[in-house]
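Severity: low
Component: inverse-folding endpoint
Summary: output formatting inconsistent between runs
Steps to reproduce: submit the following structure tokens with default settings.
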């Protein structure tokens, strides 16, 4: 049996994507093991969830460090202490310094609530609605120094429904995130997706069907909520 990759999750808040990763990793056959959760906020709700599941946690507060570089150095030291092999950002609401990112580049991934390269940054759902998008979704990518700009690992698409507001769209995308992030972490942990010369390189797929389903998904909750006739009605 192959050795599972030691993964540490960075959070700032509720940790719903962290919870999805922990749930996936509870299967001994999953190629990554969640060995620690680090938060920059002591009151992050995700810390309690991680502790309840027996995951080691650590708070590294921004206020305890005099600069972004010092704060990131403390996080780096904690990752080294965890013997981390992969770092997964899950709602970590702080831009990391270029030195930190470069050290962990190719081993650090993030999930973003939009179909990159569209709608980098914040307020993605409101911006997608304002732009009149009919398709929205989420992306898991390798982290690079420029925000939300790293090579894409996997994406999931959801429809934008007539009458959606930002909250309704966010809830639909979040369901997709909870399926996509474990899938993408599994690809990285197995070595099926790696960062090379600024691009994601995919290897070791058994066949074309495996290849396709591993890089873009339409999550099953979508199929439960939307039928083809309903989709047809919203398509001009």
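Observed output (run 2 of 3):
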């Amino acid at each position: 049996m192959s050795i599972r990759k030691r993964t540490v999750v960075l959070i700032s808040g509720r940790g719903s994507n962290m919870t999805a990763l922990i749930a996936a990793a509870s299967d001994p056959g999953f190629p990554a093991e969640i060995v620690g959760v680090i938060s920059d906020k002591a009151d992050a709700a995700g810390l309690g969830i991680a502790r309840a599941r027996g995951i080691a946690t650590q708070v590294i507060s921004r206020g305890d460090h005099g600069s972004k570089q010092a704060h990131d150095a403390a996080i780096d030291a904690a990752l080294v202490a965890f013997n981390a092999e992969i770092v997964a950002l899950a709602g970590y609401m702080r831009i990391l310094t270029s030195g930190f990112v470069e050290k962990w580049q190719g081993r650090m991934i993030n999930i973003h609530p939009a179909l990159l390269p569209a709608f980098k940054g914040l307020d993605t759902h409101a911006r997608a609605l304002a732009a009149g998008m009919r398709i929205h979704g989420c992306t898991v990518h390798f982290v690079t120094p420029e925000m939300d700009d790293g090579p894409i690992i996997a994406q999931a698409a959801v429809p934008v429904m007539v009458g959606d507001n930002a909250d309704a769209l966010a809830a639909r995308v979040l369901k997709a995130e909870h399926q996509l992030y474990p899938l993408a972490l599994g690809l990285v942990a197995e070595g099926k997706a790696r960062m090379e010369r600024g691009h994601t390189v995919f290897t070791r797929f058994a066949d074309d069907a495996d290849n396709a389903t591993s890089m873009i998904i339409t999550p099953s909750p979508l199929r439960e909520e939307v039928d083809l006739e309903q989709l047809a009605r919203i398509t001009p």
